[in-house]
Amino acid sequence: MSTTEIISQDPSIHASRLRIMKTAAQLFASRGFHAVGMQALCEALEISRGAFYHHFRSKDDVLDDICTQYMTDLLQNGKDIIKHEHDPERCLQRLGRDLLTVIAANQPELTVCFREIQSLSDERRQKVLNLHQKYESLWKKTVEGGAQAGVLLPYSPVRLKAVLGMYYYSYIWIKPNRTDELAQAIDSFNDIALKGLRR
Which residues bind DNA (predicted)? Predict the structure, then answer.
């Protein structure tokens, strides 16, 4: 039986791994990945190294799981959106809303995803970059569909990078507990994105 299968059958293991990931993300986001040693991580978790190694082989594995999980979640959310929303403009709005909502709800984790990707090994970094590329291809597909429908400008990689960068870098300033600020950011960002992409 694989580790993934064991985790899926034992909720307590899943909960413990999630707790480790969330605590690690908070530390990595506030101090930087390389500034957090195993001792500091275990002390923050109030567990022994043995308990930690029961769930992860190394600190690098935790970083890999943080980056992979949240980009995988964004990708799956995006696939669901474009599957059920066929109007290009509404699809872009829903993609933007989901992206900002996920960032606000998981700010430490997404801070780590965006800022610490260079701390991953070459193979793991490429895996995460591939997830980024697949996620951005959903936006590209939506823009191309809108261009074909005559409502959006032709696809431009530079223009799309500019729009996505606006959403991505909200992790720096957005306040997770300020629902009013999040709602305002969603409306403002979506408005700017549509004005920049609309024909």
Answer: 37-56
Q: For the whole model, what pTM was predicted?
A: 0.89
Residue 134's SS3 state is: helix
Q: Look at residue 53 in the predicted model and tell me its pLDDT.
A: 94
Considering only CA atoms, which of 17, 187, 167 is closest in space to residue 103?
167
Q: Domain 58-197 is in which class?
A: mainly alpha
90 pLDDT more than 70: yes
Asked whether 132 and 103 are in contact (CB, 8 A), the reply is no
On average, the pLDDT of the chain sits at 92
The pairs formed by 94-97 with CB atoms below 8 angstroms and a separation of 24 or more are 95/138, 95/139, 95/142, 96/167, 96/186, 96/189, 96/190, 96/193, 97/186, 97/190
pLDDT the model gives residue 175:
84
Whether 155 contacts 143, CB under 8 Å: yes
Could you tell me the residue ranges of all domains in the chain?
A: 58-197
Separation between Cα atoms, residue 81 and residue 95, nearest integer Å: 7
Measured distance CA(103)–CA(64) in Å, rounded: 18
